[in-house]
Design a protein that fits this description.
This protein is α/β, with parallel strands linked by helices. Helix content is about 40%, strand content about 25%. It contains ten helices and seven strands. Strands 3-2-1-4-5-7-6 form a seven-stranded mixed beta sheet, with helices on both faces. It binds benzoic acid (BEZ). The site of benzoic acid has 8 residues, from loops.
């Protein structure tokens, strides 16, 4: 899939805003740091204050194009994180709200272990177990109903494929690949969405785009309406939608 990078920056800038205090878990004076899944580069700029060399990588060409416009002096690469080319030369991998998009977590973790030098740091945050649980369940039900309405059978949804592990599960994965886990904590992060009543549809349009692109616009509207109906009692606070985010925050050292 490719991303709507403009919408991401304007409407969903909370993604970077919440990631800012994650940067505080990195030491200053790093040599080489990689911003894995850098998106439009909102946190890559602040990362350059902590490392002599920073490379931002993202699988989305649109995101990287936007990042290059934002920070022309920084090196950005369109790249699958599982294909990072470095070997033992990276001092820190930083990643905010990106790892859950990557399907092959064994390969990704092996790659991160390879690129980091011994003593190198992984500082990351992404969706934890049950992240956007109500949202995903309501979306899946509305989506399957819309398919049935189109005379189509049920589909396997991309939004059911995200990697949202528990802290214990992710710590075990890291340990298998030679990391010592210093911190692995799950927490609830209820997240207000911009845009009032339309905020939920806008959010689905961005984050569930892969699924929505498979149905015609009229069916998409039905899905948005059905999800809003299903969630109004639990996620609407009278003025805005509050998405049921849960995060997993991790600091690990490659040994
Ligand atoms: C998240 O950042 O938690 C997220 C991941 C995938 C879809 C929606 C949200």
């Amino acid at each position: 899939m490719d991303w709507n990078a403009g919408l991401y920056d304007q409407q969903h800038d909370f993604v970077a805003a919440y990631g800012e205090n994650l940067l505080g878990l990195l030491p200053d004076g790093l040599g080489f740091a990689v911003d894995l899944g850098c998106g439009t580069g909102a946190l890559t700029g602040p990362l350059t204050a902590r490392a002599a060399r920073v490379v931002g990588i993202d699988a989305s060409p649109h995101m990287i194009a936007q990042a290059r416009l934002r920070l022309p002096q920084v090196e950005f690469l369109v790249m699958d994180a599982c294909d990072m080319p470095w070997s033992g030369s990276v001092d820190a991998i930083f990643s905010n709200a990106a790892l859950h998009w990557i399907e092959d977590q064994e390969r990704l973790t092996a790659t991160m272990a390879r690129v980091l030098r011994p003593g190198g740091l992984l500082v990351c945050e992404f969706g934890a177990r049950d992240n956007i649980g109500r949202l995903r369940a309501a979306f899946a039900a509305a989506f399957q109903a819309a398919l049935a309405g189109e005379g189509l059978g049920p589909a396997y949804l991309n939004s059911e494929r995200f990697y949202f592990p528990s802290a214990a599960e992710y710590a075990a994965l890291l340990a298998r690949h030679g990391f010592s886990v210093r911190l692995a904590e799950e927490y609830d992060r209820p997240t207000p969405l911009k845009g009032g009543n339309d905020g939920l549809a806008s959010w689905m349009g961005q984050f569930f785009a892969q699924d929505l692109d498979c149905v015609p616009p009229a069916a998409q509207e039905k899905i948005f309406a059905a999800v809003a109906d299903a969630l109004r009692a639990s996620l609407w606070d009278g003025g805005q939608w509050i998405a049921d985010y849960r995060r997993l925050r991790v600091v690990a050292v490659k040994h």
